[in-house]
Amino acid sequence: MERNSWKNWWKILIVLLLVVVVAVVVANKGRETTPEPAQQAQAPADVVPQVDVEEQEPAEDAATAADTAEEETAEPAVKEPTPEVKKAPPAVKQTQKQPEPPKEPDKKAERPKPAEPKVAKKLPKLLDFGADYCKPCRTMKPILEQIKKDYAGKLDLQIIDVTKNRGAGEKYGFQYIPTQIFYDTNGKEFYRNTGLISRHDILEKFKEHGMDLGEPTSEKS
Fold first, then answer.
1. How many Cβ atoms are within 10 Å of 206's Cβ, its own excluded?
2. What is the DSSP letter of 164?
3. Sheet holding 179-183, edge to edge
4. Is residue 105 part of a domain?
5. Is 137 a catalytic site residue?
6. d(CA 31, CA 24)
7. Is residue 90 annotated as a catalytic residue, yes or no?
């Protein structure tokens, strides 16, 4: 029995040795066929590619020239002024409006507008030039004074004493007295008489030129 057991143990040991040898051989073959990862990673680092220096320089020069051209043509960036933002005024709380006191009536508004000044009506005019030492002038004076009274507001009649108005003859262009000068409503002379003239003739001269003085105002009153 002991001999058989030893034989069996020797067989087992031999088999185990064979298995180990086979495993070692297989492992060695695997290492030879497949390169290690460390060697594969180092291979590219050991090889340095050769670069032609003369061919590389023009490319760098072109790149630098383009950069300088862009820098020269590029306009400097101008910062736009930022608009000032005005702060909104603080919100005011609305308070209940108190009733306003009644306004006093505007006295200026109540006053009536002043009446526009009335434009004076243009009247026909008669100028008589005479003196107290002149007999025809003394005869004419009461006639003229009565006409002035009867047609007040219709006729502007003036009796002028040449002894008190020395320059009247030169101003109005006459040499003898009595002299009467007739004017229309526009102040334009339309007739001149030297010597005596009746009341009727005076009124008719105005009527002939479209200025009918009508009835005397003194008789109406």
1. 21
2. T
3. 156-161, 125-130, 179-183, 189-194
4. no
5. yes
6. 11
7. no
In 3D, which of 200, 197, 158, 191 has the Cα closest to residue 178?
Answer: 197
Residue 210, Ramachandran bin (φ over 0: left; ψ between -120 and 50: alpha; else beta): left
The verdict on residue 141 lying in a domain is yes
Catalytic residue chosen out of the listed positions 123, 125, 131, 134: 134
Catalytic residue among 126, 127, 137, 211: 137
User: Domain of 195: which CATH number?
Assistant: 3.40.30.10
Look at the chain and report how many structural domains it folds into: 1
Give the pairing type, strands 189-194 and 179-183: antiparallel
What is the model's pLDDT at position 179?
A: 97
Token representation of residue 206: 């105005």
213: helix, strand or coil? coil
Tell me the pLDDT band of 51, cut-offs 50, 70 and 90. very low
What is the C-alpha separation between 56 and 128, in angstroms, rounded? 129
Q: Is residue 7 part of a domain?
A: no
What pLDDT digit, counting tens, does each position of 139-188 carry? Answer: 999 999 999 999 999 999 999 999 999 999 999 999 999 999 999 999 99
Q: Give the pTM.
A: 0.47
Evaluate whether residue 32 is within a structural domain: no
- The contacts of residue 148 (CB under 8 Å, 6+ apart) are 155, 157, 159
Q: Residue 139: give the domain boundaries.
A: 125-210
Tokens of 97: 């409006």
